[in-house]
Design brief:
248 residues; alpha/beta; TIM Barrel; eight-stranded parallel β-sheet; 12 helices; 8 strands; 44% helix; 15% strand
Length: 248
């Protein structure tokens, strides 16, 4: 059986003091969780978050990684830097990185490969915009994004990859796909993985839903057979709300 994974994406939120307080509140609330629990925090909070989570079942992740080992890339963070801080997971391809910072399918692939080469686990984000959805291009977009993100990644490396399906139109809007819609769309991604890596990989890879999952809808979404977790935005910033999603 696959172990579900609930990951919080804090985005650009929380100081170190707030991070320490949050993790202290979260620890007892999720100590008996049946899923993997991950907090993807800003780079400046990683050390504090790791210390606060030490001895618990909370894993710490980063929100981005550069494809180069070093160099003139002001403001970027390398996989080796994350590895040194003992980060377990890193996000690549989040829609906000694509929308605001010029991320492309190709750079998502480069970042993902760099993280995997360093031994990190990667949560690769894919998803369609509202206009793409309304133009019935969801399958086309998700197929292209998934194929490009996983280009030159081996079947062995794929075992350290989680896919997060995040419909861009549902992020931070309060809108969410119905549980059945989310499940049906994730089926498209599994079909792509199956064609690329074989039936077993298409079945075993964990795919999260990342479009405004919250305490009210987590149970229904997580009950769907093809959904293996959630990438949580707003609801991950409050310890009690995040714990309710974790303990769906």
């Amino acid at each position: 059986m696959k172990r579900p994974i609930i990951a919080g994406n804090w985005k650009m939120n929380k100081t170190n003091a707030e991070t320490k307080e949050f993790i202290a509140q979260l620890r007892p609330l999720v100590k008996d969780a049946q899923c993997e629990v991950v907090c993807c925090v800003p780079f400046t909070n990683i050390v504090t978050a790791r210390k606060a989570a030490r001895g618990s079942n909370i894993q710490i992740g980063a929100q981005n990684v550069h494809w180069a080992e070093s160099g003139a890339f002001t403001g970027e963070i390398s996989a080796a830097m994350l590895k040194e801080l003992k980060v377990k997971y890193v996000l690549t391809g989040h829609s906000e990185r694509r929308q605001y910072f010029g991320e492309t399918d190709q750079t998502v692939n480069l970042r993902t490969k760099a993280a995997l080469k360093a031994g990190l686990k990667v949560i690769v984000c894919v998803g369609e915009t509202l206009s793409q959805r309304e133009e019935s291009k969801t399958a086309e977009v998700l197929t292209t994004q998934t194929i490009e993100a996983l280009k030159d990644i081996t079947k062995q490396e794929l075992k350290r990859v989680v896919i997060a399906y995040e419909p861009v139109w549902a992020i931070g809007t309060g809108k969410t796909a119905t549980a059945q819609d989310a499940n049906d769309t994730i089926k498209i991604i599994r079909r792509v993985i199956r064609k690329l890596y074989g039936r077993a990989s298409g079945t075993s890879i964990r795919i999260q839903y990342g479009g405004s999952m919250n305490p009210k809808n987590a149970s229904e979404l997580m009950s769907m057979p093809l959904i293996d977790g959630g990438l949580i935005g707003g609801a991950s910033l409050n310890a009690e709300d995040f714990a309710k999603v974790v303990n769906y």
